Amino acid sequence: MHTLADGLRLSMNWMDSLILVIYFVVVLGIAFAAKRSVHSTLDFFLSGRSLPAWVTGLAFVSANLGATEILGMAANGAQYGAYTVHWYLIGAIPAMVFLGLVMMPFYYNSKVRSVPEFLLRRFSSSSHLLSAVIFAVASVLIAGVNLYALAIVLQALLGWPIPLSIVIAGVFVLIYITVGGLTSAIYNEVLQFFVIVAALVPLTVLGLIRVGGVSGVIDKVTASEGAQFLSAWGGTGFGQDNPLGANWLTISLGLGFAISFGYWTTNFAEVQRSLSAKNLSAARRTPLIAAFPKMFIPLVVVLPGLIALIMQPNIGQPGSQYDYNSAIPLLMAQLLPNGVLGLAVTGLMASFMAGMAANVSSFNTVFTADIWEPYIKPNMPDSHYLTVGRVITAIGVVVGIGTAFIAASFSNIMNYMQTLFSFFNVPLFATFILALFWKRMTAKAGFWGLLLGTLAPIAFYSMYRAGIVDMDSAQGVNMIAAIIALVTDLVVSVPIALATTPKPEAELVGLVYTRADATDSGEMQRGDDAWYRKPALLGWGAIVLAVLCYVPFSL
């Protein structure tokens, strides 16, 4: 089990504790305020499809800004350096734009409550049930990562026992989701976004001051790790060595396409935020709005990882008391004064709860709408499914507590998270893309492609862990596993589809790509046609800005 070093213990005073208490009171207040709007399963699971784009957009990026982002990407910054920006610029922005411009009209207009439900309408119950089970398992595993990360941080920083930390965080997430449903989760995620940023900005600024500014970071990292450590593409040619252990092809195809598109376009914890928007225009703009703050998150996450590497040069090395996950807590312990310290601890708790809430809310939706309702208790009153949704939320939190300790064997939790994405999200994306863009795709092809596409990367990763496959980097393994998942799904699905009978075209209306459906603007509301709200402008603007953000790391 990996825990953070006792040397990170913080000295919090009454002011720091007061900030933390105020945050928890506000979180619960939002939950009980949101309760008044929850009257049906649509309200509980999708906020009644009533939220504006700026709210769902901030919730979209905040749902991803959990433990994996704060601790994991800072850990990646300390371990891999500037290569970490790939997870943002090629590993997020293009896929978020694709979701908003191409896929969202099909999700939203089909009135589905989840991603698996789309596969039910496109294929059959077998593909639907398989994808629902995969989603449920992945959701509680990822929720467990957030809980475990929070527990080890609070133990190191505040001296709280790990079981107590897990229970406190779990109970608060359980209360505000069970009481207020997705509306509570989303509005709390908006609050959490600003709290997290407010906590990380002063940490980054004080860290830069300590190491001599940006020039100090460049000089000191170059002296200790070499200039290549600050270049996103340096050493990525075939046969060349780099800390990431991957070449430009595996980065582009494995991370930039397979893992990225698999996560951002099919991960229901994210898609659910778009589906809760008030109309199609707002739903399409949700991931596009989120793309802009997303590409600047490295400034307050990855950069602190580099600063931690300078301040503690042996971080993550054998014999060191600090592993890579210690990067952010290390800076907090050494840099922040009281008051600001309380804000930083509150920001960490906000990030963990945002990540866990996103996965628990997606878990309760998928379990209730895609497993319980169609296969266990069909044709029950809506109030029954609302009750089930609340009960399964509690069960999801309990199971998340159990899965939290699976992450204990990973000194860099982002390595673990990317492993889960390559197992679960990539094959689902391959199946979904074939279903969306190929009318000839059949239910049997969807089922077997998804099943074998999931098993193949698990088998490959198992061989790596057993020492049968020898690779230098866990992230390199994840990128190869993602490519294997993608290729396996396609190789299995295409011949089966050609050998089986597809659905009649009349049954595929709105479920298979046509340009008319993709460009459908839906029911417009006042102001939706403003030039600055046009999805195409937002999407291509994000792509151009992401390319420009690569420039400092490509010289």
CATH topology of the domain at 12-23 and 38-410: Sodium/glucose cotransporter
Radius of gyration: 22 Å
Largest sheet: none
- Termini separation comes to 40 Å
Order of helices and strands: HHHHHHHHHHHHHHHHHHHHHH
Shape: globular
Instruction: Tell me the CATH superfamily of the domain at 12-23 and 38-410.
Output: Sodium/glucose cotransporter
* Oligomerization status of the protein chains: single chain
Number of helices: 22
Secondary structure: number of strands: 0
Secondary structure: helix percent = over 70%
Low-confidence stretches: none
Classified by CATH, the class of the domain at 12-23 and 38-410 is: Mainly Alpha
CATH architecture label of the domain at 12-23 and 38-410: Up-down Bundle
Task: Write the topology of this structure.
Layout: H1 14-35, H2 41-46, H3 53-64, H4 67-80, H5 86-89, H6 93-109, H7 115-122, H8 125-158, H9 162-211, H10 213-225, H11 248-266, H12 268-275, H13 280-294, H14 298-311, H15 327-335, H16 340-376, H17 382-403, H18 413-437, H19 443-465, H20 474-499, H21 515-518, H22 535-550
Helix pairs in contact: 1-9, 1-16, 3-9, 3-12, 3-13, 4-14, 4-16, 4-18, 6-11, 6-13, 6-22, 7-8, 8-9, 8-16, 8-17, 8-18, 8-19, 9-10, 9-14, 9-16, 9-17, 10-14, 11-18, 11-20, 12-16, 13-22, 14-15, 16-17, 18-19, 18-20, 19-20
Keywords: Membrane, Transmembrane, Transmembrane helix
Pfam families: SSF
GO molecular function, one term: D-glucose:sodium symporter activity
Summarize the structure in words.
With 555 residues, the protein is mostly helical. Helix content is 72%, strand content 0%. The protein contains 22 helices and no strands. Helix 1 packs across helix 9 (162-211), helix 4 (67-80) packs across helix 18 and helix 7 runs antiparallel to helix 8. The mean pLDDT is 81. It is a multi-pass membrane protein. The chain crosses the membrane at residues 12-34, 54-75, 87-108, 129-154, 160-179, 191-209, 246-266, 287-311, 331-354, 387-410, 416-438, 445-464, 476-498, 536-553.
